[in-house]
Write a structure and sequence with these properties.
With 438 residues, the protein is of the alpha/beta class. The protein contains 18 helices and 17 strands. The longest helix has 15 residues.
Length: 438
């Protein structure tokens, strides 16, 4: 059954475009132009996600979110707006919004968010997954580090942007370890409800709390003897961090409602796209837990940093989806190959995979064209700036030039530049002041 998404937006052209994006990605999207219409639809229909503008002709996105919370409807909610307000951001996050997107909202970013929202809370793999073997220098270094650490019991932390393939690295570590024939359990930490976290992680006994009609195994039980992969570790609440730290320190845990301790016989591998050192400074992440999880660190590079992998990966996905979708394809046109190599791939391997899959599905020719890959931004003075010069902020040696390029490409529009750099406008303003940019 398709996931159903409600788009609350008074710009009919924009809402139709977003509806088309979701439809192309396999979702069922419905639109509403005001808060009263949205409320009426929510009362009659079950939605899996809501995307709402703040400013509406009747009502607004924040009051809609407040109403949903009063109605005790647990629907993932994303706010969009052209006018970024820090108080509004704080208010929506406190109300439980999962993200706050400045306009213009980019297709790949929006679909990536939806994929994260609908990602299962836990996945158990007992069989080896077939993975593509990449050959770019940076990936070869990652593979070398994987071989070095796999046979140990060290806790590994994998760092990298969304869509780079951090879970594939974790699976490679598992497959290279002595635990390879035991379960690999991947937990989406961003989806762990605070009030159920202890039960989900450690399990519970029958009658432990209201609704516990049967005993249930937790993720530590499910991964026994194997590897527990904690994805998006940076989103874990402070309370859950404390529970996890206690288990890692003592190597034991107790299911809810039980008096018997169990041994935590798992290898821990974690991953994040967040700067955890900054999160520690801001008091959002425990430093002692960070050191427990980060006995060995692996940095997974972006796809743009591994251009040698782009075309081989595209061929790999083309062959896979040609089989799955039962479509006859023979390769990519010369123009498609040129566009793929010139495109910056902000959504990384995941974006490449999704674009190839769609191209296989919609192509009327065996030779795929990969339409829709815009490789440059045009300014009003007809000057062009290649998007490859604009990447998400990484370190201080690149930041200033990246900010200058983004501002230039957006004709000085700060909110658009912030969206391009995948940071919020407040962070951009702070960094512009730091580097003396006005």
């Amino acid at each position: 059954m398709k996931r159903r998404i409600l788009i609350v937006e008074d710009n009919v052209g924009l809402s139709q475009m977003q509806k088309d994006w979701f439809a192309q990605a396999g979702y069922d999207a419905v639109t509403a132009i005001s808060e009263p219409i949205a409320r009426s639809l929510i009362r009659k229909t079950t939605f899996d996600m809501i995307l709402s503008d703040v400013r509406l002709p009747e009502g607004n996105g924040i009051s809609l979110l407040e109403w949903i919370r009063r109605e005790k409807k647990d629907i993932p909610f994303i706010i969009t707006t052209e006018y970024v307000s820090v108080p509004d951001v704080v208010r929506t996050i406190k109300l439980g919004a999962i993200d706050y997107l400045p306009k213009p909202v980019h297709r790949e970013h929006l679909l990536e968010l939806a994929e994260d929202v609908f990602k299962p809370m836990v996945t158990v793999r007992k069989k080896e997954k077939v993975m593509f073997h990449r050959t770019s220098p940076l990936i070869l270094q990652v593979q070398k580090n994987v071989r070095l650490v796999a046979s140990s019991e060290m806790a590994v932390m994998i760092l990298g942007a969304n869509g780079t393939g951090k879970e594939s690295v974790a699976q490679s570590i598992h497959q290279g370890s002595e635990r390879w024939n035991k379960p690999f359990v991947a937990v989406n930490c961003g989806a762990l409800p605070r009030e159920l976290a202890a039960s989900l992680l450690f399990g519970h006994e029958k009658g432990a709390f209201t609704g516990a009609d049967t005993a249930k195994a937790g993720y530590f039980d499910m991964a026994k003897g194997g590897t527990l992969f904690l994805d998006e570790i940076g989103t874990m609440s402070y309370e859950i961090q404390t529970m996890l730290l206690r288990v890692l320190q003592e190597s034991t845990y107790t299911p809810i409602g039980s008096s018997k301790e169990r041994v935590a016989d798992v290898r821990i591998v974690s991953a994040t796209n967040e700067d955890l050192l900054q999160a520690i400074k801001e008091g959002r992440f425990r430093e002692d837990l960070y050191h427990r999880l980060n006995e060995f660190e692996i940095q997974q590079p972006s796809l743009a940093e591994c251009p040698e992998d782009i075309l081989p990966l595209a061929e790999f996905f083309r062959e896979r989806y040609s089989r799955e979708l039962k479509r006859e394809t023979s390769g990519f046109s010369d123009d498609a190959r040129r566009r793929m190599l010139a495109y910056p791939w902000p959504g990384n391997v995941r974006e490449l995979q999704n674009r190839v899959k769609r191209s296989v599905l919609v192509s009327e020719s065996p030779l795929l064209e990969m339409e829709g890959l815009n490789t440059e931004i045009h300014q009003h003075n007809n000057e062009t700036i290649p998007l490859t010069a604009i990447r998400p902020l990484k370190d201080e040696t690149q930041e200033k030039m990246n900010i200058i390029n983004a501002l230039k490409a957006c004709n000085g529009h700060r909110e658009q530049a912030a969206a391009m750099l995948k940071i919020n406008p407040a962070t951009l303003y702070r960094k512009m002041k730091k580097y003396g940019l006005k």
